[in-house]
């Protein structure tokens, strides 16, 4: 079983962090720093709570002026990376909000080793016009991590972060950044653009549909200097951006990607386990059948899960996307009802449906116990 993410911040890591700070700031109190972090509540703290605990402890034992603390942290930031380095931008988020210029310089630096996508959001709220101008400047950076920050930091619905209500209501200020980055050479950056658009689609589907149509039309019209790689990258970006609309079976988006209504396709030999035990796997299989070639198909299954109050809540899962030249295809799948942190399972009657190109073609029931 995988270790919880929060355990990246363990005693070995904190000891190393203290030593790294001490190497550039000889007055640092390593023992007191560790004692403050490993309080009685440490073991129960989740990832973000542990990050904030480290942030607060650093603030307590570093020099009081924010700018001096940042200079010290900048000297050691390159020795850490990824998830473990999130406390660097978190320090700026917590203690730098009233130090705009020095904070932005620090965030631009720290995001190269981790990500400042969470830390920039309070600055967007407090300095909306200045920050969006800065985000556009970052979108032109030579560093892909900084360019990604320009898009990821202003996502209206960034996971693990508070929503940016202003952009949920009106996403137009975001598009100057997204247009700048849509053909970025880095997949890492383009993925962020797609995620931003997917966020927007949840509140403004019509806006994203128009953007998707326009961006794909540009690719089809050879507006990308006949560069097939750029065209393929654009296709992948737009499709990932529209993943929510595809799951919702939006007819315009389905048609845009060539998934037409499955008028002559049937589901035969649909078999589902009648009963599955909590923690076990549900097995099911079916055959897609047609008198002609099946063609381009997006095949999904949906499970209506029993909720605590006895109602059902559906979730869609993708099986495949492909062009099938034969007139039948047999599919076997399984769904694991093992315990996970992101979904609570409850015993009772569940529904399992097969969806082809956005259309529900067959449904069966099974019992989870």
Automatic annotation (TrEMBL):
Enzyme Commission no: 3.2.2.-
Keyword entries, A-Z: Glycosidase, Hydrolase
GO molecular function: hydrolase activity, acting on glycosyl bonds
InterPro entries, per the entry: ARM-type_fold, DNA_alkylation
Gene3D superfamilies linked: ARM repeat domains
Protein name: DNA-3-methylpurine glycosylase
Organism the protein comes from: Psychromonas ingrahamii (strain DSM 17664 / CCUG 51855 / 37)
